[in-house]
Amino acid sequence: MRILVLYGSQTGTAQDVAEQIWRESRQWGFEGPVLALEDYNIQQLIEERLVVFVVATTGDGMEPDNMKQAWRFLLKRSLPSNSLNGMQFACLGLGDSSYSKFNYAAKKLHKRLLNLGAKSVCPLGLCDDQHDYGHLGTSLAWTAELWQTLSSTLALRKQTDNVDVKMWNVRVLEQETALNEERLQWTQKQKPHIFQLTANVRTTAEDHFQDVQFLKFCGKNCEMIAWQPGDVLDVQPQNSSENIQEFFDLLKEHNLEFNASTVVEVSSAHKDLPLPLPYATPISLLQAAQYIWDLTAKPRQRFLEVLSLNCDDDMEREKLLEFCTAEGLGDLIAYVNRPRRTLLELLQDFRHATAKLTLSQLFEMMPRIQPRSFSIASDVSSGTLDLLVAVVNYKTIMHKPRLGLCSNWLKELASGVDLRAVVKPGTMSWPKDPDTPLIMIGPGTGIAPFRSIIQNRLQLQKTGVSIGQLVVFFGCRQKDKDYHFKEDFERWQESQSVVVHVAFSRDQENKVYVQHLIKEHASHLAKLIREQNAYIYVAGSSNNMPKAVREAFLEALDNDAIYLDQLIKQRRYQEETWT
Fold first, then answer.
1. What is the dihedral of CA 93, 99, 100, 101, to 10 degrees?
2. Backbone phi, then psi, for 175, in 5-degree steps?
3. What letter would DSSP give residue 188?
């Protein structure tokens, strides 16, 4: 019997869950592919009888990029309400309850499928990143319930022999093969622009705990590249030379039969499973380790499952398999998630399993590098595309500090290098009338998109266009340590073109944050919002700041919660936050 597994994934987690569901479906006797929604002809959905959707929510309740086209089709008003009468489905959402629009994409999809006549075989599953066990706290139980339901309604039986379902075939190429290195620098579907890095400087003081880099790019060969305020730049990072060396040292230490110079051809093990773009042509293991595999990733359950396959040490094998069960989740979280252990460190710990690794296992278990998005911090009129990047570097109980793959890779880029990247729309939408006032709250690197819109509005003003008042709240620790875009703020204040409020939280005895300044200027802000229909934008860390800012605005609006909710629904109050 056919089952179709479709996913909408932004960071790879929903894809990982969908592929696991697909593997389990084979053990229940099902056939059919697992595909990104963008790789499936959504118009054929009318012919499907059983579909599982795994959908992440990104940004401010948005669907992932690889789901957008399919979602637009499903929203067509011309679709009859009985379009999907013959289809049964199950929907699993991946979200984070610290965001107000928790699992919005999955909720909207589930409702729309029901409206089109499809029948849900089990309740909508809502995974929460805030759960002690992350998405696994819900997904494992939900998937078990799915198979239980289907087995009773369809009279299915699970196969007793647990044969591993692999996705790829890997063949070593002995003869000399031409390798295309350049194409591996960008392996996403969208055609990239080529940028040239013109500046890469640290903006925070050398003795400040947080390193933040300011990068300036221009179009290669004077290519004119357009973007709008609020847009983001998608970047595909590469592994550090240190991690690459550590990986191949590990292979050498265990006398494995492959090394950096081994060249392979990868093909799909199933006729209905598309080959990922990075594997489209032969590659060397060195290229895989540099451009394709995320060596800094936390090992997911599939990684552990595959690693256990050839392990001849009973203790290691049992532990790896235990990590893959619902009962072993607590141990898995304590071992991997809390200390943020990387897959390289896990391979070091499970030495017997690593010593038995095959090429086929490597290609099954290694997670692929996903693009990272950064808010563009300049308007196109400035002539350069600017980024403000907080470099991720922190300590856990592990011996080495934890380093973010992309931010540390960007930090090390030298001026003059080329970068392949894609400009994408962000989640913020601006009022059509430039005369509408904008109130912007962007502590830390959250200031990036607001520098872009401020530059844009001031450029419009130079051309004679009337613009609404621009009010910006910025927050950092200390004026002489991490005051990003200090010169811009001072110039805007001096010219009185922008109303600037800055909170330096550590420069006085009592800590002052942006929410305190909002309360201080409540009457002015309330007037702009109620009388001039001002739009409010909040960007930055998703920890406590967005909630505190929302409460400050609620207070400024005389605790009128209904009015604030209206602002949110009308998108006059927007948040773009990240963990």
1. -30
2. -75, 160
3. S
β-strand partners of 335 = none
What is the residue whose two structure tokens read 């009592």? 510
Instruction: Summarize pLDDT for 494-544 with one digit per residue, the tens.
Output: 999 999 999 999 888 889 999 999 999 999 999 999 999 999 999 998 778
Which has the closest alpha carbon to 345: 279, 383, 297? 297
Helices 561-569 & 545-556, crossing angle to 10 degrees? 120
C-alpha distances (whole Å) from 382 to each of 229, 239, 258, 452, 456 are 12, 32, 50, 9, 9
DSSP 8-state symbol, 68: H
Cα 19 to Cα 7: distance, rounded to the nearest angstrom? 9
Cα angle 298-300-301, degrees, rounded to a multiple of 5: 150
- Whole-angstrom distance, CA of residue 364 vs CA of residue 351: 19
50: phi then psi, degrees, rounded to nearest 5: -145, 120
Do residues 398 and 258 touch, judged by C-beta distance below 8 A? no
Q: Which two tokens stand for residue 74?
A: 């499903």
Quick one: pLDDT at residue 537?
Answer: 97
Return the structure tokens found at 78.
Answer: 């011309």
Q: Which residues pair with 370 in a beta bridge?
A: none
Residue 215's φ and ψ, nearest 5 degrees, are -115, 135
Amino acid identity of residue 271, one-letter, is: K
The token pair at 319 is: 């532990």
Question: pLDDT tens for residues 436-448?
Answer: 999 999 999 999 9
Centroid of chain to Cα 149: 32
CA distance linking residue 449 with residue 197, whole number of Å = 19
In the structure encoding, which two tokens stand for residue 402, read together?
């934890």
pTM above 0.85, yes or no: yes
pLDDT for position 507: 86
Q: Which residues pair with 214 in a beta bridge?
A: 201, 388
Q: Degrees (nearest 5) of the Cα angle 488, 544, 498?
A: 20
Of 291, 68, 265, 283, the residue nearest 187 (C-alpha): 291
Do 386 and 376 contact (CB within 8 A), yes or no? yes
pLDDT (tens digit, 9 = 90+) per residue, 459-500? 999 999 999 999 999 999 999 999 999 999 999 999 999 999
Q: Tell me the C-alpha distance between 375 and 423, whole Å.
A: 10
Give the burial class of 47: count Cβ atoms within 10 A of its Cβ; 0-12 exposed, 13-18 middle, 19 or more buried.
Answer: exposed
Tell me the C-alpha distance between 371 and 12, whole Å.
Answer: 10
Three-state SS annotation for 500-528: EEEEECCCCCCCCCHHHHHHHCHHHHHHH
Geometric angle at alpha carbon 394, from 392 and 400, rounded to 5°: 115
